[in-house]
Amino acid sequence: MNQKEINRSVFERNIKRGLDAGIISFNENELRIAYNCSNNFKTSFQNPEEKVRASYFSELILDYGYQPQKIGVEIIVPRRTPNDRADIIVYEDDELKKPYLVVECKKDGITDAEYRQAIEQAFGNANSVRAKFASVVAGNTKTAFDVSGFKPSERTKNVISDIPVKYGKAPKYRFIKGEDGKDLEEVSRDELIRSLEKAHDTVWQGGKLAPTTAFDEVSKLLFCKLKDEKITAKGKTYLFQIGTHESPEEVYKRIDSIYQKAKKEDSKVFKEDIRLDPKVVYNVVEHLQSLAIGKIDLDTKGVAFERFMEDFFRGKMGQFFTPRQIIEFCIKMLNPERGDTVLDPACGSGGFLLNAMDSVRKFAEANYDENEAWQHWHNFAANNLYGIEINDQIARVCKMNMIIHDDGHTNVISTDSLSDYSEIKKIHQNFKKDYFDIILTNPPFGATVKNSEKDYLDHYELGKDRDNQKTEILFIERCIDFVKPKSGRIAIVLPDGILTNSTLQYVRDFIMERCEIMAIVSLPQIAFTHFGAGVKSSLVFLRRKADNEKLKEYPIFMSIAEHIGYDATGRKDPENDFEIILEEYKKFQKKPKEYAGC
After folding, report:
1. Which of 82, 278, 379, 528 is the most buried (most CB within 10 A)?
2. Domain ranges, residue 216
3. Rounded alpha-carbon distances, angstroms, from residue 119 to 147, 177, 450
């Protein structure tokens, strides 16, 4: 499948197949659709549900072998209300007297409650016309039922993996690796985002779980999904799916077996069991089972997961998320290479680390053959990316985010970055002074470390003889200590008060004593407002000096970014000053003393 096809949604691809086969058609402006079926139905194409119906109608004919002349669209169902209609009915006979399958179509992204309502609607219609099977389709979420073989009230035991092909027998399992027509579907970025949102809403249960807990549980199931895609052999059925007549308990047991194996292999990431009711796991599997997440290219997948996480983190946990535009600018300014060790001591959901990995990956893919490129960036991800996150749940989110992006999670730990090195090294021996080539970070602002609460404040030059100190100030010293003397470089987000307040001159003096200031880029007030943080900030780029290095007066690159690619609400802004600033900085680097600015 080429990239153009992949960028299309599953609906769009199916509709194109239907158009090519002549079983559906549009009028000139594509506002109305015609179904070449038993009742030659025509209707508006403006309703989102119509896209789903047109897609599934095409599948019924092209994939399942049902004849268009035995299919009716928008058929009146004889019930109490004369105007009740079934979206699609497939008949067994030419006279259209024996309904076989009733289909209920809903737009993508409906809630679980709306989906359950659609199931009841499908059953009502199927029972009224005495159809053998019913199917509910809402975007990529599909559930099929054996209606005739069970009591009218049954909604679980009569679930089947898929509708029969050509009036045959329902298969035990729908998805088989490598088998034409039965393998998982490559979906578009927007479809992936919607599927992730549906999975999260199912787990969140309208607020029964804390948002972070819900995200944690989704991450566990998502890992099981990705693991299953990887380990399933060709010709074998996937484990992450719902089989015919399987109970939620049976599905849960199979998914949990994947997870328990992962716990043994990587106990640092997977510490706790899946803490969800089997029915919730069952519903998540419904939403995700058809997707080939592992096959989605990393750029598409990366943007999808970022959009999903951004929507989740905004307003809930904004302190753990740095916008992509700021991250990408910092990475382009410091340009990490394969041999560089990269650290984010406040890594949150892992944005800096993932984008550093992406930068190295894109370089490798542009300069080496496929196998060499894969080795190049995977070695970097496994051995050169390091993160510390104080919140254990968010550390797991970061690790999962990296696993989803093809790994690099091994060197992410959960602890307090400001604690003594000896304590950090107990967890991972490479977290030591003078070790890292590059630090990229957006440390927490505003919190205060009190001497009465933490025993390490006196160990900091910027904390000695003080009752308390701001975390962002201690992070400056910790970052400088973490990088290598002479060559270590730092990109850090700092509140403007550190750069301007007269009472903080001692902090600026400390920075200048220990570092060369490479650049300062002032961010607009709106940079973090859509994540609930309104502190005016700047990006500060530093190089740690050698121990005995003395610098004469030197020029510092300074710039103001007024537009950064998004507005105060987080919506895209076509203007982005970062691109211009980066070009100017490159000019400055070549001849800093002669640079006149713009």
Report:
1. 528
2. 189-295
3. 11, 29, 57
Kindly state the tokens that stand for 1. Answer: 């499948």
C-alpha–C-alpha distance, residues 354 and 171, integer Å: 40
> Are residues 461 and 315 part of one domain?
yes
Whether residue 117 is found in the same domain as residue 210:
no
Q: How far is CA 180 from CA 6, 92, 140, 292, in A?
A: 17, 26, 18, 14
| CATH code at position 447 | 3.40.50.150
Taking only the tens place, the pLDDT of each residue in 62-89 is: 999 999 999 999 999 986 565 689 999 9
Which of the residues in the chain have pLDDT under 70? 1-7, 79-83, 268, 310-320, 407-408, 530-533, 597-598
- Strand-pairing partners, residue 395, are none
Same domain? 7 vs 129: yes
**Angle of the 351-367 helix axis to the 370-383 helix axis, nearest 10:** 160
Helix (H) or strand (E) holding 439: strand 438-441
- Asked which of 233, 267, 295 is the last residue of a domain, the reply is 295
Using alpha carbons, select from 45, 125, 48, 141 the residue that is nearest to residue 88: 125
Tokens representing 586 are: 């490159």
Helix (H, G, I), strand (E, B) or coil at 302: helix
Nearest-CA neighbor of 91 among 61, 118, 66? Answer: 66
Total domain count for the chain?
3
Model pLDDT, residue 81: 61
Distances (CA, A) of 444 to 213, 388, 417, 441, 476: 21, 13, 11, 10, 11
The pTM of the full predicted model, rounded to 2 decimals, is 0.82
Residue 387 β-bridge partners:
344, 412
253 Cβ contact partners less than 8 Å away, ≥ 6 residues apart: none
Nearest one of 247, 15, 2, 289 to 140, comparing CA atoms? 289
* Beta strand segments in 480-576, E: 489-495, 515-522, 537-544, 557-560, 564-566, 572-576
Q: In this structure, which amino acid lies at residue 204? A: W
State which of 280, 295, 310 marks the end of a domain: 295
CA distances from 147 to 2, 96, 101, 144, 159 (A): 39, 19, 9, 9, 9
CA pair distance 356, 302, nearest whole angstrom:
13
Distance CA 525, CA 522 (A): 9
Task: Compute the radius of gyration of the chain from its Cα atoms.
Answer: 28
Give the H or E element holding residue 145.
strand 141-146
Residue 517 to residue 488: CA distance in whole angstroms: 12
Q: Which two tokens stand for residue 433?
A: 């002074």
**Rounded distance between C-alpha atoms, residue 10 and residue 31, angstroms:** 20
* 596 inside domain: no
Residue that the structure tokens 């730092």 belong to:
490
User: pLDDT, tens digit, for every residue of 257-311?
Assistant: 999 998 888 776 777 899 999 999 999 999 999 999 988 877 777 777 777 776 6
In whole angstroms, give the CA distance from residue 91 to residue 69.
Answer: 9
